Fold this sequence. Notes:
By secondary structure, the chain is α+β, with helices and mostly antiparallel strands. It contains four helices and six strands; from the N terminus they run αααββαββββ. It has a domain at 49-170: Nuclear Transport Factor 2, Chain: A (Roll). 32% of the residues lie in helices and 29% in strands. A hairpin with a 2-residue loop joins β5 and β6. The longest helix is centred in the first third of the chain and has 25 residues, at 2-26.
Amino acid sequence: MKRNISVFILxxxxxxSFKYRTKTRETTQPVITAGYDxxxxxxGAVKSSLDAAVADLQKANLEMAKGNPEFFxxxxxxxxxxxxxxxxxxxxxxxxxxxxxxxxxxxxxPAQDVVYTYEKIASQEGVAQGYLIQKEHYRxxxxxxxxxxxxxxxxxENNVWKIIxxxxxxxxxxxxxxxxxx
Length: 182
Protein backbone atom coordinates (compact mmCIF):
# COMPACT_ATOMS: atom_id res chain seq x y z
CA MET A 1 0.00 0.00 0.00
CA LYS A 2 2.86 2.37 0.79
CA ARG A 3 4.24 1.68 -2.66
CA ASN A 4 0.93 2.59 -4.33
CA ILE A 5 0.77 5.85 -2.41
CA SER A 6 4.34 6.69 -3.43
CA VAL A 7 3.57 6.00 -7.08
CA PHE A 8 0.39 8.07 -6.84
CA ILE A 9 2.28 11.03 -5.33
CA LEU A 10 4.95 10.80 -8.03
CA UNK A 11 2.27 10.81 -10.74
CA UNK A 12 0.66 13.90 -9.22
CA UNK A 13 4.01 15.68 -9.04
CA UNK A 14 4.83 14.74 -12.61
CA UNK A 15 1.44 15.89 -13.87
CA UNK A 16 1.64 19.19 -12.00
CA SER A 17 5.17 19.89 -13.25
CA PHE A 18 4.02 19.16 -16.81
CA LYS A 19 1.09 21.54 -16.33
CA TYR A 20 3.39 24.36 -15.14
CA ARG A 21 5.99 23.62 -17.81
CA THR A 22 3.46 23.96 -20.62
CA LYS A 23 2.11 27.19 -19.14
CA THR A 24 5.57 28.75 -19.08
CA ARG A 25 6.09 27.75 -22.69
CA GLU A 26 2.88 29.46 -23.68
CA THR A 27 3.83 32.80 -22.17
CA THR A 28 6.23 35.08 -23.97
CA GLN A 29 9.02 36.36 -21.78
CA PRO A 30 10.97 39.49 -22.71
CA VAL A 31 14.52 38.82 -23.85
CA ILE A 32 17.05 40.19 -21.40
CA THR A 33 20.14 41.39 -23.26
CA ALA A 34 21.82 43.55 -20.63
CA GLY A 35 25.56 43.09 -20.92
CA TYR A 36 25.38 40.84 -23.98
CA ASP A 37 25.51 41.43 -27.71
CA UNK A 38 22.11 40.58 -29.07
CA UNK A 39 21.54 39.59 -32.70
CA UNK A 40 17.87 40.48 -32.23
CA UNK A 41 18.94 44.04 -31.44
CA UNK A 42 20.64 44.36 -34.83
CA UNK A 43 17.63 43.33 -36.90
CA GLY A 44 16.12 45.81 -39.28
CA ALA A 45 17.65 48.64 -41.24
CA VAL A 46 19.36 50.29 -38.27
CA LYS A 47 23.07 50.74 -38.91
CA SER A 48 25.30 49.95 -35.97
CA SER A 49 27.80 52.58 -35.01
CA LEU A 50 30.70 50.37 -36.16
CA ASP A 51 29.07 50.06 -39.59
CA ALA A 52 28.90 53.86 -39.75
CA ALA A 53 32.57 54.10 -38.74
CA VAL A 54 33.49 51.58 -41.45
CA ALA A 55 31.52 53.59 -44.04
CA ASP A 56 33.48 56.70 -43.00
CA LEU A 57 36.69 54.69 -43.24
CA GLN A 58 35.91 53.74 -46.86
CA LYS A 59 35.37 57.43 -47.75
CA ALA A 60 38.56 58.37 -45.89
CA ASN A 61 40.57 55.72 -47.77
CA LEU A 62 39.61 57.30 -51.08
CA GLU A 63 40.48 60.78 -49.80
CA MET A 64 43.77 59.44 -48.46
CA ALA A 65 44.64 57.94 -51.86
CA LYS A 66 43.98 61.36 -53.40
CA GLY A 67 46.52 62.91 -51.02
CA ASN A 68 44.16 64.29 -48.37
CA PRO A 69 44.83 62.62 -44.99
CA GLU A 70 42.73 65.01 -42.87
CA PHE A 71 39.46 63.03 -42.89
CA PHE A 72 41.37 59.79 -42.30
CA UNK A 73 43.18 61.33 -39.32
CA UNK A 74 39.87 62.32 -37.70
CA UNK A 75 38.95 58.63 -37.48
CA UNK A 76 42.02 57.78 -35.35
CA UNK A 77 42.38 57.68 -31.59
CA UNK A 78 44.90 60.18 -30.23
CA UNK A 79 46.22 57.75 -27.58
CA UNK A 80 49.82 56.57 -27.33
CA UNK A 81 48.88 52.94 -27.99
CA UNK A 82 47.76 53.42 -31.63
CA UNK A 83 49.80 51.60 -34.26
CA UNK A 84 50.24 51.19 -38.01
CA UNK A 85 52.05 48.17 -39.42
CA UNK A 86 53.07 48.24 -43.07
CA UNK A 87 52.18 51.86 -43.71
CA UNK A 88 53.02 53.91 -46.78
CA UNK A 89 56.75 53.39 -46.37
CA UNK A 90 56.28 49.80 -45.12
CA UNK A 91 57.34 50.83 -41.63
CA UNK A 92 55.76 50.33 -38.24
CA UNK A 93 54.54 53.35 -36.30
CA UNK A 94 53.53 53.44 -32.64
CA UNK A 95 51.92 56.36 -30.83
CA UNK A 96 49.74 59.09 -32.27
CA UNK A 97 52.62 61.39 -33.30
CA UNK A 98 54.35 58.63 -35.27
CA UNK A 99 51.06 57.49 -36.83
CA UNK A 100 50.18 61.05 -37.81
CA UNK A 101 53.61 61.51 -39.42
CA UNK A 102 53.11 58.28 -41.37
CA UNK A 103 49.68 59.43 -42.57
CA UNK A 104 51.09 62.81 -43.59
CA UNK A 105 53.83 61.08 -45.64
CA UNK A 106 51.18 59.36 -47.75
CA UNK A 107 49.73 62.72 -48.75
CA UNK A 108 53.05 63.81 -50.30
CA UNK A 109 52.20 61.75 -53.40
CA PRO A 110 48.71 62.95 -54.37
CA ALA A 111 46.78 61.11 -57.07
CA GLN A 112 43.65 62.86 -58.28
CA ASP A 113 42.40 60.10 -60.55
CA VAL A 114 42.19 57.01 -58.40
CA VAL A 115 39.63 54.23 -58.27
CA TYR A 116 39.21 52.66 -54.84
CA THR A 117 37.30 49.42 -54.27
CA TYR A 118 37.19 47.09 -51.30
CA GLU A 119 36.05 43.59 -50.41
CA LYS A 120 34.85 43.26 -46.84
CA ILE A 121 35.87 39.87 -45.49
CA ALA A 122 34.72 40.10 -41.88
CA SER A 123 33.86 42.51 -39.11
CA GLN A 124 32.67 42.21 -35.55
CA GLU A 125 31.43 44.74 -33.05
CA GLY A 126 31.87 44.21 -29.32
CA VAL A 127 30.94 46.46 -26.44
CA ALA A 128 34.21 48.41 -26.47
CA GLN A 129 36.20 47.04 -29.43
CA GLY A 130 35.59 46.02 -33.01
CA TYR A 131 37.53 44.90 -36.04
CA LEU A 132 37.38 44.98 -39.83
CA ILE A 133 39.20 42.66 -42.23
CA GLN A 134 39.09 43.58 -45.90
CA LYS A 135 40.93 43.70 -49.20
CA GLU A 136 41.57 47.15 -50.63
CA HIS A 137 42.23 47.81 -54.32
CA TYR A 138 43.61 51.10 -55.62
CA ARG A 139 43.89 51.84 -59.36
CA UNK A 140 45.76 55.01 -60.25
CA UNK A 141 45.53 56.95 -63.51
CA UNK A 142 49.25 56.49 -64.19
CA UNK A 143 48.76 52.71 -64.32
CA UNK A 144 49.93 51.88 -60.80
CA UNK A 145 47.92 49.40 -58.75
CA UNK A 146 47.92 48.68 -55.03
CA UNK A 147 46.12 45.63 -53.67
CA UNK A 148 46.21 45.19 -49.90
CA UNK A 149 45.08 42.81 -47.17
CA UNK A 150 43.99 45.14 -44.36
CA UNK A 151 43.07 44.61 -40.72
CA UNK A 152 41.69 47.55 -38.76
CA UNK A 153 41.00 47.52 -35.02
CA UNK A 154 38.56 49.99 -33.48
CA UNK A 155 38.00 51.08 -29.89
CA UNK A 156 34.99 52.96 -28.59
CA GLU A 157 36.08 56.25 -27.02
CA ASN A 158 33.38 58.56 -25.65
CA ASN A 159 30.79 56.53 -27.59
CA VAL A 160 32.63 57.06 -30.90
CA TRP A 161 34.51 54.31 -32.77
CA LYS A 162 38.15 55.28 -33.28
CA ILE A 163 40.87 53.40 -35.15
CA ILE A 164 43.61 52.09 -32.86
CA UNK A 165 45.48 49.82 -35.28
CA UNK A 166 45.82 49.32 -39.03
CA UNK A 167 47.86 46.56 -40.61
CA UNK A 168 48.19 46.49 -44.40
CA UNK A 169 50.16 43.98 -46.45
CA UNK A 170 50.40 43.83 -50.24
CA UNK A 171 48.48 40.99 -51.83
CA UNK A 172 50.97 38.83 -53.64
CA UNK A 173 49.94 36.41 -56.31
CA UNK A 174 51.72 33.10 -56.45
CA UNK A 175 52.64 31.98 -59.94
CA UNK A 176 51.97 28.27 -60.20
CA UNK A 177 54.30 26.11 -62.18
CA UNK A 178 53.01 24.01 -65.04
CA UNK A 179 55.33 21.22 -64.00
CA UNK A 180 54.21 18.66 -61.48
CA UNK A 181 56.83 17.28 -59.14
CA UNK A 182 56.64 13.54 -58.62
